Amino acid sequence: MRERSLLSVIESPTHPNFGQLYSELGFEHLRADSMRKAISQVRKRTPDFIVAEFFYGYGNNYAGVNLSNLDVLLASLPKYAPEALVILFAVKDEMQYVDKLKELFPVHAVLQQPAQSEQMRDLLS
């Protein structure tokens, strides 16, 4: 039986460090520090879970075409990792924008920062 895997996309220092929890739960913990590297990882090995922080775009890139930092990664999942479950972290002020993202892409769960390890344990169990 294949070991379960989890990909953490760590783009900022505020990304919770649940590495020990992932190990306790028996996950192979993959890491990427950019969306480009995350997509490359997903293409090589389909993770069971993808954990990333949500950052709203505030109309910056490409005249507002992308809603957030996650659009390109989430758009690639139907092709490369259709079964992967996505768990997002978001700060309180940006929680309102997560619903817009969920209208476009499937999201398993959203945890408001600061996320607690017990919340993550419940989602992964």
Which secondary structure elements does this structure contain, and how are they paired or packed?
Elements: E1 5-9, H1 19-24, E2 28-32, H2 35-44, E3 49-53, H3 71-80, E4 85-90, H4 95-104, E5 109-112, H5 117-124
Parallel strand pairs: 1-2, 1-3, 3-4, 4-5
Helix pairs in contact: 2-3
Protein described:
This protein has a five-stranded parallel beta sheet, sandwiched between helices. The chain is built from five helices and five strands; from the N terminus they run βαβαβαβαβα. The protein has one domain: Rossmann fold. Helix content is 35%, strand content 20%. By secondary structure, it is an alpha/beta fold. The mean pLDDT is 90. The radius of gyration is 14 Å and the shape is globular.
Report on the biggest sheet. 5 strands, parallel
Question: Can you tell me the CATH class?
Answer: Alpha Beta
Total DSSP helices = 5
Radius of gyration: 14 Å
CATH fold category name: Rossmann fold
Shape: globular
Quickly count the domains: 1
Widest sheet, order of strands: 2-1-3-4-5
Query: Could you tell me the number of beta strands?
Result: 5
Terminal CA distance reads 17 Å
Tag the structure with descriptive keywords.
Rossmann fold; alpha/beta; 5 helices; single chain
In brief, what are we looking at here?
With 125 residues, this protein is an alpha/beta fold. The chain has 5 helices and 5 strands, in the order βαβαβαβαβα.
